[in-house]
Amino acid sequence: MAVSRVSYPQIVLFGDSIFQASASVSDGFCFQAAMQSEVIRRFDVVNRGFSGYNTSNALSILPQVIAPPAPGVPQIEYLFILLGANDACVQLPTNYQHVPLDRYKANLKRIISHPNITAHSPNIFLVTPPPLDQIRITELDLARGHPSASRHAKISAAYSEAVRQVAAEDPGVTLIDLHKAIMDTAIAKTPGFDATGPALGDPESGERGYLEQLLPDGLHLSAESYRIFYGLVQPHLGAEWAGTAEADRVAYVLPDWRDAPWLEEDAHLKGSSI
C-alpha cells in the first residue's frame, strides 16, 4: 500500500548574507529559529540567503532555488526578499557587486513578478536593506586593501528608498522597513544626537552612536538588530490561527495528538476484552 507524503507549505527567505546569517545563533538569538518556532508544524522556514549576491545574481539563480508548483514541490505561502546591500556598493577596481539604482529597481520588479514565484501566489514582503555605518565600513575596507570605502551611507539609504517605492507601486507587496527600524533604534539610544542633520554612521556626522551596537561591522546585523527585524515580521505570521480559542493547535499540517484519527482506534482497543 502506497503511503502519501505530507508536504509542508513554506516561508522562504530569499536574499543575501543578511538572510544567510539569520540562521546563526548570536547572543542567544536566531532570527530563522524564532520564525520557525512561531510557525512550527504549520510551515517550513527555508533559508535561501546567498552571501555577496546582488539582485542580478539573485535573478540568475532564481529558477534553481524556487521551482513552480508541481507534484512534490511545496507550496510557498510567504516570500521575504532582502537584497540591495551589495547592489549599493560603489564601483571600485577591487569590487564589482554594484548594480545601478534603476536596474536594481527593475530587478526587484522582475523578481516579484517572476513566473516561478507568481505561480505560488505567495504573500510577498520586500525588506529594505539596513542602514550603513560608513565610518566603520571605511576602517575595515581600508584594512582589507580597498582604496576607499566600498559602501556609502547616503547611497545605501537611496537603495532602501527604492525598495519603498517598488513596494508602494505593487498592491500585492508588503513593505518591511528594516532600514528605518534600525536607524530609529540607534537614534533613540544615542543621547543628544541631532537626527535632523547627517545620519549616524555618515562621515559628515562623524558619529556612530548606538549604530555601533546594531551593525558591528558597519553592515551586518547584531543579535539585537535581528530581534528588531523579527519584531517587524512576527505580526505578519499566524493570521490563519491568531485569535482562535486553541491557537496552539490550529492549522497544523498533521493533527494535534488529541485530534488524531488513531484516538478512535485507541478508544476501541481500550473498550475491548482480550
Automatic annotation (TrEMBL):
Top-level taxonomic group: Eukaryota
GO MF term list: hydrolase activity
Keyword Acetylation: no
The keyword Hydrolase appears for this protein: yes
Keyword annotations: Hydrolase
InterPro entries tied to this protein: Iah1-like, SGNH_hydro, SGNH_hydro_sf
Domain SGNH hydrolase-type esterase residues, every copy: 13-228
Protein name: SGNH hydrolase
Organism: Trichocladium antarcticum
Lineage: Eukaryota, Fungi, Dikarya, Ascomycota, Pezizomycotina
